[in-house]
Amino acid sequence: MSGEPYQVIGDLYNRIFTVQATHIDVKVDYAVWNQIFANLPKDYKLPDAAVLLLDKPF
Amino acid sequence: MKILLATFWGIPHVGGVWKYMTQIQQRLEAIGHQVDLMGTTIDEAGFCIHNRGRVISKEKLRPFLDAKLAAPYAPQMHSHPLIRYYEENRYMMELSAAYMGLNQYDIIHTQDIFTGRALSRVKPAHVPLVAQVHGSVSGELHSHFRLHPHLGIGENSPAWRYCKTIEYYGATAGDVTITSTQWQKNELMHDFGIPEHRITVFQYGLDTADFWYKAQAGTTMHRPPGKKMIIFPARLSFVKGVDVLISALGMLKYMRNDWECWIVGDGEKREELERQANGLALQGLVHFLGVRHDIPALLMQSDIFVHSCIQDNQPFSVMEAQHAGLPACVSNAGGLPEMVEHGVTGLVSPVRDPVTLAQHLELLLRNDEFRLQLGRNAAAWAAGHWSLDLMIDRLLNLYTHVMNH
């Protein structure tokens, strides 16, 4: 198994989701997601609520 | 200066946005700047910094997003497949950009509304963003919805409203918004309420050295003796209105027979357009050449350029045709009337009006002196107007201004 990416439970990164549900069976590549997480703004959220309001903001 | 040019679309591609990005990259790197090009990989399997060979696969992101953004947690995202497609891909672009690291750039210049919104959400606050709008995504999609009522997408449906909403947020994502035509500026002001002072207009430029190099390299195609050539280089998609030209040629055939037509490009409409041409008995007169890399040389062998599009902003194909000294028969869609002056550098017909287009083609085929004069006028206009040096100067000034404010 050497060379395979180190997998961690995705719930570690739940902070970026508006609805923080648990998915203990979903694993992510630690190196990739740690780098993403480190570079995201603190207030970053998914999904993009403003766009999904689907309402004219103007 | 370290600059990121970014697009939502696959790179490298044949279209105008990629040409625009590479022109900027080449010119700015020649004077000591560093320019990275970000986009979707051409197989759509990931996102890349193309010139650095850096790629992140969507499969590192998608399964996790699918779980966390399933319908119970993000119901609006699932209210239509179109919304889900664009939003999921945009979120993957946001995460990919974070992975690549935006902190290294002095300025970010996005090339479409999806990228504008995406990178504005993940960039560091101190890095300015210039949002370029090359066309109207909502305009194109709304036209598509209107012409395909069986899709069931009306003005109150989520997919329709999504197009308008994402266009607003994408176009306003930057510290400044650039567009190349007054038409597009007016659309942004009137349809999306973007304040005039936030929009900068300057036209594209064409790398004439590259154009003339390719023109002189020649082509394997030869014009048939005794015929004049009509040429329409474009992606074969609905919005380009190739079907309008074919309808016009179906009429022109009964007016005169001293012409043939090259349709250069490929796309999802190709089979349908070939059927249309065959149905009008245009075999032998209309030739579908597919994607070619010798368009400048083909233009040099042509007599009349056509761009009968439904909507377009400022296509490079018109600039190239004008440099080649061809009169342009264009529709009055979008920014085209800003490129072609009726009766001076070409002839302008209403959108989706094959009768007028056929009359314009007939006039130019009948009157050699008029056709050649329009071509000469077009070449003179092109030489003064489509300057790449001027465009790069304006862009650099804008970058500097945005970085200093």
UniProtKB/TrEMBL annotation, chain A:
- Per the record, the domain of life is Bacteria
The name this protein goes by in its record: Uncharacterized protein
Q: What is this organism's lineage? A: Bacteria, Bacillati, Bacillota, Bacilli, Bacillales
UniProtKB/TrEMBL annotation, chain B:
The domain of life for this entry's organism is Bacteria
Q: Where is the Glycosyltransferase subfamily 4-like N-terminal domain?
A: 14-209
Describe the location of the Glycosyl transferase family domain by residue ranges.
Answer: 224-380
Report keywords, A-Z. Transferase
**Does the record's keyword annotation contain Transferase?**
yes
Q: Name one GO molecular function term.
A: glycosyltransferase activity
Name under which the protein is recorded: Glycosyltransferase involved in cell wall biosynthesis
- Per its UniProt record, what CDD domains does this chain match? GT4_PimA-like (cd03801)
